[in-house]
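Sequence in, structure out.
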Amino acid sequence: MRSIAIFGAVGALVAAVALPAYAASSTPVDATATLQQIAAEDSQSLVVASAATASPLDRSTYSATTQEEIDKKKAAAAAAAAAAAASRAAAASAASSSGGSINVGSYALVSPGSGEVRYPLPRGSYTEGRTTSGGHDGADMLAPAGTPIYAAAAGVVRVSSESYYGYGVAVVIDHVIGGQAVSTTYAHMTNGTRQVQAGQTVAAGQLIGAVGSTGRSTANHLHFEVHVNGSILEPYSWLAANAG
């Protein structure tokens, strides 16, 4: 009995010493604490400042925000396209009524009578024949064979040939008139009358040949063409606007 009492006392002593230590190592959990508050010290966390604001959305070139606004913008774009098409159609109609030439705006490139643009045939030496229409890209200036032909403006001869396709004996001259690229064609000349060669620089009013009926021609006349920036103009109107 004495031994049992001794072992009992020792056990009680060990329990009394161990329990406070265990209790001290445990931290009571507050009933109102959240899981984040009791997380381990090395856990990851996200802190958002109270003054933080959302970045505005950049719409770039888009200004419509509702379906109604988008529909309005589409309708406006369609109307603008229709107006542009109508304008082109009106220009084409005006060109057609003026002889089928391509309207490039104003025929006037320089002041009429300045001498920069001249008539290719002497005034009064010809009558106005067929003009630009139905695939005929120039004006037929009816005149007797041998009538002198002059360069309508200063420039550089691009073509000088005794047989230039259906043009027969012909000369083509490139010019810069009023800041625009212009070319003039002189066709159906009399054989052997060409006075200029390709690459030659000529002055306005310089003699370049004589009226004839070579190539696809049935009568003596000068077939005269005017191209401005690649577009065909009606020659009589162009001469009136620039040569005076």
